[in-house]
Amino acid sequence: MSVSTKWDARYLGPVPHDTSYYAKCMLGGALACGFTHAGITPLDVAKCNMQVNPQKYVGTGASLKLLLKEEGTRGIWKGLGPTFVGYSLQGMFKYGLYEFFKDTYMNAAGEEISEKYKGAIWLAGSSSAEFFADIALCPLEMTKVKIQTSPTGTFPVPFGAALSEMNKLKVETRFPLGSLVPLWSRQIPYTMAKFFFFEKIVQLFYTHVFTNPKDSYSQTTQLGVTFASGYIAGVVCAIVSHPADSMVSLLGKTENKGKSIGTIAGEVGFATLATKGLSTRVVMIGTLTGFQWWIYDTFKATMGMGTTGGK
To answer: Solcar repeat boundaries (predicted)?
Structure first.
């Protein structure tokens, strides 16, 4: 890629945003999302069961104790395989394509409009990236939810066997893309909030708290800003996307087989969709998002690409 004299968003950072840059961002995103989501599988199992069977599973701690009692340690780690693979793929496209689309939209808008409407660029880039990321995630997310919410002994737990069973149940489960619309409904608003609020909070930190040039601060300080901004953004994300997250879980419930999204929403009620399991998800997603951004920016900094965001 040759450097042009014309303003180009790809040359605003410490290194040019070429094919190698985007590929590294994809790898960083895969590392950030795959390991963090896999690490909180027990919380995810508890949350999903609270959503689909709130009479039996009441509260995070009580749900985990009940799962351990009934199924042992294996019970709280159900769905680890599809979680790790699915969210690694999702993270790869989410972060890598965000960088690509952000540069593309900035160049299409031009320097003046890009500077004036940064927030719109962040929202457009993140929503575009998540659109494609969810297509990669959907089959694995459907498999994960089915494993985690099926009564013991009614559905295979091993990753390979579960995928095979989902393929056999295509008509019943609408596998592999049956949950794509509710997944988009959950993940696109989540990702828009995640990237917009992260970028905005980082901007506020470097405008009002760390007011010297960003590169004058140590890598430790910059990564501290990254984690704090990611955590705060994650709390907002959890609240925004929780109703759709509940719907994805309910679609995997045997009793809801063949029911439309509208029917399930009417039966459950919006208040339940918006609040059941929310406290668990706020803690889970806040921590998750903080560490995702920290891992991603640590990887970028290690590669000499700098951390994300600034004034």
So the answer is: 20-104
Banded model confidence at residue 58, pLDDT cuts 50, 70, 90: confident
Taking only the tens place, the pLDDT of each residue in 233-259 is 999 888 888 888 888 788 877 788 778
Structure-block tokens of residue 20: 């190698």
On average, the pLDDT of the chain sits at 92
User: Between vectors from CA 30 to CA 99 and to CA 229, what angle results, nearest 5°?
Assistant: 60
Mean pLDDT of 123-150: 96
Structure tokens at 94: 């989410």
Checking phi first, is residue 7 left (phi over 0); if not, alpha (psi -120 to 50) or beta? beta
The C-alpha atoms of residue 269 and residue 275 are separated, in whole angstroms, by 10
pTM above threshold 0.70 = yes
Angle at CA of residue 292, ends 37 and 203, nearest 5°? 150
Cα 225 from Cα 281, distance rounded (Å) = 23
> So what's the pLDDT on residue 226?
97
